[in-house]
Specification:
By secondary structure, the protein is mainly alpha-helical. The longest helix has 47 residues. The protein is elongated. 9% of the residues are buried.
C-alpha cells in the first residue's frame, strides 16, 4: 500500500530528509551520480531496519538476545517499508537513466558502422559490357489451326438437321 508524504514525514521525522529526494519532481532533476548515491543510502537504511525487525522477531521467539526487543516492531516495519518504497522509486529512475545511456551508446555505434559501410568499396565486381538488346522471345512450337467460321456454322446446322430427322 502506498504511503503519503505526510505519513512518511510523521514516521521518519529526522530521517525524512533522506527519503525526500526520492519523490518524483525532485528525483527527475537529480543527475545520475546523485541518484546512485541516494540509492546506496536508502539501501543501507532499509537493510539496517530490516535487520532490526528480524532481531526483534527472533527475540520475541526466544532465539535472539533479549536486548533487541526494545523497539516497536510495527513502527520499525512501517519505517522499513517507507525506505523500501523510496528505493524502488530510485531504482526505477536508475533503470530509466541507464536505458537512455544504453540507447545513446547503441545509436552512436550503429551510426559509426553505417558510415563505415557506406565508405567501403562495393564487395562485388561490376557486370562488364553487355549487349543492350536484352532477351529474345522464342517462337511457339505449337501448331496453329485456323478453322473457317463458315465450317463451324455448317457443322452445327448438320447436327441440328440430323437431330430433327431422328425426332420425326
Amino acid at each position: 500500500m502506498a504511503t503519503s508524504i505526510a505519513a512518511e514525514r510523521r514516521l521518519l521525522r529526522d530521517d525524512f530528509a533522506t527519503v525526500a529526494p526520492s519523490h518524483y519532481p525532485a528525483l527527475g532533476e537529480l543527475p545520475a551520480e546523485e541518484v546512485l548515491t541516494l540509492a546506496r543510502t536508502l539501501r543501507e537504511q532499509r537493510d539496517r531496519l530490516r535487520g532490526m525487525v528480524h532481531a526483534n522477531r527472533r527475540a520475541r521467539r526466544g532465539k535472539g538476545e533479549p536486548r533487541a526487543a526494545a523497539g516497536n516492531d510495527v513502527a520499525l516495519a512501517r519505517r522499513k517499508q517507507v525506505f523500501a518504497a523510496a528505493l524502488k522509486r530510485v531504482n526505477h529512475r536508475l533503470d530509466v537513466l541507464h536505458g537512455q545511456a544504453r540507447r545513446a551508446w547503441h545509436t552512436a555505434a550503429l551510426r559509426e558502422v553505417l558510415a563505415r559501410k557506406r565508405a567501403a568499396a562495393a564487395p562485388h565486381p561490376g557486370g562488364g559490357d553487355t549487349p543492350g538488346t536484352g532477351m529474345h522471345a522464342k517462337p511457339s512450337r505449337k501448331r496453329i489451326l485456323r478453322t473457317d467460321p463458315r465450317e463451324i456454322g455448317r457443322v452445327s446446322q448438320f447436327v441440328r438437321n440430323a437431330q430433327a430427322k431422328r425426332d420425326r
